[in-house]
Amino acid sequence: MRPINIAIGMVVTLATMTLAADEPTTRPATKSIDAGKMLGQMLSTPAEGETRALQPVNTAQPDSTSGSGAVAPGAPQLAVMREGSFVVDRTGRLSASGDGQRMEFTFEADGRTLQDPPVVIVPNLNLMKMEDAVQAMRRDLKFRITGVVSEYRGRNYVTVDKVVVVPEVLQQF
């Protein structure tokens, strides 16, 4: 075999540089297991001291700001939106939370349930744009937002991906 010079000055034979086409790059498992047996192992209860994957959290819990957590007496108890669901082109207003520490998006009536609890807006550049628009106009504005919903301790949070100020002409009606 003839040696090949590589740019860094090492000499390597051509046989060591090429991989034969019939050589596998990975090897199959030496011991195969029946699919039914594998499923049985996955579904069986673990032995003492053996670790298991986390089980999903029951998300059928009420929104903590509804029901007894609401200001109005006798307010209905509302369920939180599921983690990962999308808010698409929903109209509403920006408002401060009860403690004044966070900003919330209060939905306009949607014509279906009319009972959408406000969602906390995760701070990002779109929230900053919304706050700047309200401050510049010195009045309450309507926004149309699109974003992803997350859930934490009985509250919904939205990461706003798109925000548009609803034109004043449309806000009058």
Task: Report the end-to-end length measured between terminal Cα atoms.
Answer: 85 Å
Number of strands: 7
Report the sheet-strand fraction: 25-35%
What spatial order of strands do you see in the largest sheet? 3-4-5-7-6
Indicate the low-confidence ranges by residue numbers: 8-17
Task: Please state the CA-atom Rg, rounded to the nearest Å.
Answer: 29 Å
- The whole-number mean of residue pLDDT values reads 76
Structural class: alpha+beta
Provide the CATH top-level class of the domain at 81-171: Mainly Beta
Helix share, percent: 10-25%
CATH topology of the domain at 81-171: OB fold (Dihydrolipoamide Acetyltransferase, E2P)
CATH H level, superfamily name of the domain at 81-171: Nucleic acid-binding proteins
Corresponding CATH architecture of the domain at 81-171: Beta Barrel
Q: Shape from CA axes?
A: elongated
Our count of helices gives: 4
The biggest sheet amounts to:
5 strands, mixed, barrel
SSE succession: EEHHEEEHEEH
Architecture overview:
The protein has 173 residues and is an alpha+beta fold. It has a domain of 91 residues: Nucleic acid-binding proteins (OB fold (Dihydrolipoamide Acetyltransferase, E2P)). Helix content is 17%, strand content 27%. The protein has four helices and seven strands. The strands form two sheets. The protein has a five-stranded mixed beta barrel. The termini are far apart. About 6% of the residues have low confidence.
